[in-house]
Amino acid sequence: MMEMILYGRGGQGGVTLAKLIATAYFLRGQQVQAFGVYAAERSGAPVQAFVRIDSQEITNHNQIREPDHVVVLDRTLIAPRITTGLKTDGWIVLNTPDHPEQYAEQFAGRRLATIDATGIAVANGLGTKAVPIVNTTLLGAVARVLGLEWADVTGALAELEFGGGNITAAKQAYEQVLMQQLAGSLVFSTATGPAAGSAVAGLFDEVVGSQPRIHTGDWANRAPQRRQLTPPCNQGCPAGNDVRTFVEQVSREDADAALATLLETSPFPGVCGRVCPAPCMSACNRHEYDEALNIREIERYAADHGRRPEPLRPIRPQRVAVVGSGPAGLSATYHLARLGYPVTLIEAGQELGGVLRTGIPTYRLPREVLDSEIHYIIAHGVQVQKGVRIKREGLLGLSREYAAVFVATGLQETRALNLGNLHADMVMEGLDFLDQARRHEIFLQDRRVVVIGGGNTAMDAARSALRLGARHVQVIYRRTRAEMPAIAEEIEEAIEEGIELSELVAPLQLQNNGDGTVLTCQRMRLGEPDESGRPRPVADTCEDAIFDVPCDLVLLALGQSPDLSILPEGSEITENGQLLGLAAAPIFAGGDLATNEGTVTAAIGNGRRAALHIHLTLTGEDLFPPEPEPTAQPAQITMHLFKHALREKSAAVAPATRRRTFVEVRQGYVDEPGHHPAVTEAQRCFSCGVCNNCDTCLTYCPEGILQRRGDRDYRFDYDFCKGCGICATQCPRGVIYMAEL
Amino acid sequence: MGRELVTGNYAAGYTLALAGEANRSGRGCGAGAYPITPQTEIVEYLRGFEFTKGAVVPVESEHSAMGVCIGAALAGARSFTASSSNGLAYMTENVFAAGYYRLPIVMIAVNRTLGPPWNIWVDQGDSLALRDAAWLQFYTESHQELVDTILLAFRVGEDPRVLLPVMVAEDGFVTSHTQMIVDLPEQELVDRYLPPCRVPHQLTHARPTTVGGLTWPKETTHHRHEIQEAMERVPEVLAEAINEFEQVFGRRPHGALSAEYTDDAQTVLIACNTMTRTLRRVVEERRARGEKIGLIMQKMFRPFPRQELLRAVTQAQRVGVLDRNYSPGSGGIMWTEIAATLQHRPDILVQDYLVGLGGGDVTPQDISAIVDELQSRQTAGDPVWKEVAA
Fold first, then answer.
1. Do B266 and B219 share a structural domain?
2. What's the CA gap between A152 and A140, in Å, rounded?
3. Cα Rg for chain A, rounded, in angstroms?
4. Coil/strand/helix, residue B115
5. In the predicted model, is pLDDT for residue A570 greater than 90?
6. Which of A327, A551, A696, B187 could form a disulfide with A603 if both were Cys (CB 3.0 to 4.6 A apart)?
7. Interface subset of A 44-73, CB within 8 angstroms of B
8. Is A544 exposed, middle or buried (0-12, 13-18, 19+ CB in 10 A)?
9. CA–CA separation, A615 and A573 (whole Å)
């Protein structure tokens, strides 16, 4: 009797090869038997097949343990164990492009044949490139090694109805197989099959083991891995807030933790929770599903409901001066103080806060909110000097007195607009107007007001004018609403309050037309994009392109520019145009003075980076956050796993009521018994690219090879992971992915 | 067809199809089919076969598969199906119904261990658990025996003296998935061997009846006794069927059991299915060394062939039973039947060995060790649990 073992992987056709070999002998009149070892295995798992050939009837139904020959269908299975039980003169037939000599050491003293069956099968289009089916090819090689005729091969292939490329491939293998008696003395493999004599486990006996320890992980061709991506909200926050984390903390009803997270990066969650343009919300992936999260309101909720930690006290010897108490200066002050520096904050005016106080009306940012956040900053042992205006000489003096100086004096120069010489007293700068308005120094009873501009200052001026009694308020903007830099909600609220928005209108001049003063305007249309990327407004030429708007007061909100005269002559602002080392002096500049980014949030982030930069300069310690991981893209989120849910509504004072008062318009998320809109809203978060312990992967893993130990410490047991990928498919947030092995 | 290199499942499916086709001159054939490892290729083959008159109905469960068979048989069709292991367990209610309805359905039981714990390999506990369902049961040791016994099964089951369903068992994988050379019959010969199936209590429009309604204890006892009488007529019918088989096909299948080297054997081992072939190698090797040892291939289990068994152990002092099955709280199922039969021979030491449970690869060395153990015994004991390699 001749017995053979075929070692292969599920899907390669090993059992069919056994039948092909048996058929070749069957057609020669021999008795044959061919069978495989079957288990709960799948494509890629190591499998065995057996062939018996005899001239007598075969009555042996046992597995073969002492084969006359072995065939290895898969190169990755070539190992000493294939010679276990192999008779001394038996052939080893390997599917490999290698020459038999390559195995001179591993299989010394053996008769060994090699054939690149995979290459031949692929070349003949058998199976796929990923899973070539090598059985018919190997039949040619095996037949040659066993001394069969080519006709035996064609006979067997015909019997089992194999044609075409199978015949060509078998022929190539029949002709190309390399056979060699390797030199040296035999080495007998000591490897055995399944462990003999190991204790057998009872169903309830966990100590002895339970299932057969088949390392099914060996079958895998890919493995699940975990990663952390940057949530787009975090990526989008100019202040550097860990948005995803504080949202999750609110979703767990832990406002204290959420506020602590915010205070790591910003001293102004209460301010930003009210006036931030919220680029995080524009970036939110949930926008692709139903509606972006209302992150700004969640931040406000955390700021209004969380408890602030005790302020830290200075512990370092180096004193730092900060010039300017706008958002950038206060942010730098706060972060320097948290790092332990004694900070002196110098402000030219009588109140701290800069544009936060003078430029933002109280119906958007109540005074108490601003005062409380500034108070918390100052409580970190900050020395404050008010009413001290620093000029160039003073700055140089500070640089000698302090270890470092940070200058963030913001934008002090306003852009002018010539509307003719006649009515200069009818034209006012928007920021000056807002400052007077908050000090109740101006009233506009029954007056008609035109605001020129499209930014937040324009909206603030218009809405303040209304609250100060104006009869009619009109905003004119030379592009369309879509291009307006103002926060969309501000525009919406202004219109709700009755403000008229005139798009595609540019002012020409103020003049008298007999009935009173009018602002003569030019109708515009959108042209090609300019250098800012927005469409350039160009004068329209239609019949009524020039028209008059009756008005009593014009408010200019055209933007501002920095006054650089404070900086030492020949100063150079470095660091990618954001920061801030000035040549030859420990002076750093930031905020809008250096960057003109124009938002409170950007100024906060800029102030923080300035503090870290100063700290690095003074101590050599780099506390900058590491380079962010790639941002989680919408396609990486398994959105269909989430229930559709629109934004929670926040409270607001009705337009008819608010248009005559400076009471805060938005009331935020207001808790009611049984309804916590901030928490519900926070629970809408996808937690893009960051594990939040949802345990979906644990639920779906069909093999039970995934475990969680403690918080967010998930372990894959790669010994038993077959790489099915269900965990990655089901991960709602793109944390688990499949890596090719 | 002639001699072919095929798997046991192919051979079984092929033979069932020919038997079904052979009834095309009668009421045709009808089968319910549901897959389960290691039986699936059989129902796949049947679904792929184009019957002249009849249908194989894919259903949603084994229970329904047997339901279709019952309906088809009651309509007068030749009916058959196949299942395994937990599939048989799920089918059980209707398996009993087929038996007590006296419907000559033929079912291939591809033996597989019942779970849990989950296991797909051979163990005869699944079909033996159905021994009380009023079915004839045959166990087959080879591909050829399987093919021939399926044809015998239709012939015997449909005989008006019997009219009972028949289960033909084969070993999962060892037979079902192994390629062996087998003589596959031609349709023409099967047509000759299997006359049109006639079910006397067939439902017809002409004579509307209800089958299997409520009966009183006395009538039920009578019904049971009728089944027993039918079972008792099986040896006679089987003998005729084998003779006829030899005339048609030119070869002679085994009968209720095959007693080999038992004329002078003091030690007799009993096994079923493919383990018999391994046992035979051990017995022949030992006889060559002069031992007085024989074997019995237990082919028919229902009805249990008591007379044949007693005749085969006339010289025996020791009988060892190789049970690849296990009845919890008792022991090997074959052993309990054999021991009950051998109450007439209190001089014989009868010992049970539970071997190859869950599909263990029982080697000649394993069986030889059992023979040694049996021969060293002075008294019989509880069943011996014999571990073998995986």
1. no
2. 9
3. 39
4. coil
5. no
6. A327
7. 58-63
8. exposed
9. 18
pLDDT given at position A209: 44
Domain that holds residue B321: 259-386
pLDDT score, position A42: 65
How big is chain B by its Cα radius of gyration, in Å? Answer: 20
Q: Does A19 touch chain B (CB under 8 A)?
A: yes
- pLDDT of A40 strictly over 70: no
Residue B390 has its nearest CB partner, among A40, A59, A194, at A194
Instruction: List C-alpha distances in Å: B300 to A329, B136, B303, B359.
Output: 98, 8, 7, 21
- The average pLDDT across A424-443 equals 86
pLDDT, position A582: 59
- Could you tell me if B144 and B204 lie in one domain? yes
Cα angle for residues A107, A111, A112 (degrees, 5° grid): 70
pLDDT for the residue numbered A205: 54
Residue where a domain terminates, one of B230, B249, B268? B249
pLDDT of residue B136: 98
Least confident interval from A169-173, A426-430, A464-468, B20-24: A426-430
| CB proximity A399 to B under 8 Å | no
B155: domain CATH number? 3.40.50.970
Give the residue with greater pLDDT, B313 vs A411: B313
- A469 vs A198: CA distance, rounded Å: 93
pLDDT one-digit tens code per residue, A670-679 = 999 999 999 9
Q: Which domains does chain A have, with CATH numbers?
A: 2-181 (3.40.920.10), 232-309+638-682 (1.10.1060.10), 320-412+562-619 (3.50.50.60), 422-558 (3.50.50.60)
Pair of tokens at residue A51: 């062939």
pLDDT for the residue A193:
47
pLDDT in tens, A43-83: 677 889 999 999 999 999 999 999 999 999 988 888 888 99
ipTM: 0.90
- Contact (Cβ atoms closer than 8 angstroms) between residue A327 and residue A355: yes
Mean pLDDT of A269-295: 95
Q: Rounded to an integer, what distance in angstroms lies between the CA atom of residue A674 and that of residue A676? A: 7
Query: How far is residue B155's CA from residue A569's CA, in Å, rounded to a whole number?
Result: 115
The predicted pLDDT at position A210 comes to 46
Domain boundary among B194, B216, B249: B249
B282 and B236, same structural domain? no
- A62: which chain B residues are within 8 Å (Cβ-Cβ)? 278, 361-364
Chain B residues within 8 A of A29 when measuring between CB atoms: none
CATH of the domain at B265: 3.40.50.920
Residues B42 and B103 in one domain: yes
* B153 and B75 within one domain: yes
Taking the CA of residue B196 and the nearest CA in chain A, the distance in Å comes to 34
pLDDT, mean of residues A212-227: 81
The pair of three-digit structure tokens given for residue B158, joined into one six-digit string: 């449909």
Contact B363 A62 (CB under 8 A): yes
Whether residue B290 sits in one domain with residue B238: no
Among chain B, residues having any CB pair with chain A shorter than 8 Å are 5, 38, 117-118, 120-121, 171, 173-174, 177-181, 274, 277-278, 280-281, 361-364, 387, 389-390
Angstrom distance (rounded) from CA A443 to CA A450: 15
A417 vs A611, more confident = A611
- Residue A595: pLDDT band (50, 70, 90) is confident
Q: Which residues in chain B are closer than 8 Å to A20, comparing Cβ atoms?
A: none
**CA nearest to B178 within chain A:** A35
Kindly state the helix (H) or strand (E) to which residue A525 belongs, with its residue range.
strand A517-529
Q: Is residue B254 part of a domain?
A: no
Token pair listed for A421: 């010489």
Pick the residue from chain A with its C-alpha nearest to B175: A61
In a domain, B60, yes or no: yes
Instruction: State the pLDDT confidence band at A580, using cuts at 50, 70 and 90.
Output: low
Look-up of token digits 């019942």? B114
